[in-house]
Specification:
Blueprint: E1 2-6, E2 10-14, H1 16-24, E3 33-35
Antiparallel strand pairs: 1-2, 1-3
Length: 40
């Protein structure tokens, strides 16, 4: 599972495959996305 904190508002958990699909679909456009605990 991937743990993603976006703009300090919430944390979300995704598998790496789900994360890549959402990133390719521009799901994170306009958001600040950062690694949590060095994990993507």
């Amino acid at each position: 599972m991937t743990r993603l904190a976006t703009s300090g508002w919430f944390e979300a958990r995704f598998t790496a495959t789900e994360f890549l699909r959402m990133a390719e679909a521009s799901a994170f456009e306009g958001m600040t996305v950062e690694l949590v605990g060095g994990e993507l």
